[in-house]
Amino acid sequence: MSTTPLIDADVIQEGWTLLVEKLGLQRATQFVILLERGKGDSVQEINDYWGEANIDEIHNKVMAWKSRQQ
Question: What distance in Å separates the CA atoms of residue 52 and residue 58, rounded to the nearest whole number?
Answer without folding.
Answer: 10
